[in-house]
Amino acid sequence: MMIMVMVMVMVMVVVVVVVAVVAAAAAAMAMAMAMAMAMAMAMMMMMMILMMMMMMMMMIKLLNDNDSRIISICLQSINVAFLGCERFTDVLSSFKLAGTMLGEILSAFEFMDCSSMHLVESKLGLHNPINKWPFYVLIETFGSNSSHDEEKMSLFLEKVISDNTARDGTLATDLTKIKAVWALRERIAEALMFCGTVYKYDLSLPLPKMYELVLHMRERLVDMQVTNVVGYGHLGDGNLHLNITTPDHSDEVLNEIEPYVFEWTAKHHGSISAEHGLGFKKANYIHFSKSPSSVALMKEIKGLLDPKGIMNPYKVLPH
Fold this sequence. Notes:
It catalyses: (R)-malate + A = oxaloacetate + AH2. This protein is an alpha+beta fold and 319 residues long.
């Protein structure tokens, strides 16, 4: 009897050991398969990422080669009009009309003055596609239906020209011409670098007051060693880029500009900083745009989130 019990116990032990071994082997196989599958998936993802990077590089090359086919795939429909205006009020009227007639496809509305145009022509050798005018307007539309967008742009241009809101203009629809027109506006800052020291101001103002500041600063600095006072910017958000140049740096000129330009902006309900932020150069002038209580609250929030002052130090808040 005892022998039978011992035999049964030994059989049970063997069965348990065999089951354990089989289970361990199965687990090991499952883990190995899982690892193999994971490695296979990782390799597939890497191959997909490499393929996407290669496709992006090909697209960039095509864009750099001015291949309009890739643009037509990505953008579907893009039109750029460049207009000449007699007065800044005509610029504002064009902007209002563009908002009404172009609506959902209007993607950019920029303006530049004749001084800005003279700089890109004389310093960079760029070509003005229309006659000389006191002001220029760049209008871009962006959509998905080329025939619909071109019809809306054509009706808009017919209206502004017939009303004498714009006195001259051209329309660019292919990539080469579009880039050439945009260069007139985007390379103004580059042209200014050839004029010596540049005093740059990125301001936000009510639209009727935007160019008034440029005219006012020309009068204020007329007897000083100032070579240029130019204005250009984005009408969509009331953003004026005021740029003043002198052959060399002049503390006298700088003291005539600052803080006067900030005081004038605040007086006319504008902001001393628009798209480029306050940074550290304008931090101590924040009170021209924000009340003392607002600045105090901002300091309290900054202290809670960044008690050691190591996040973006010396910027935005006065120091």
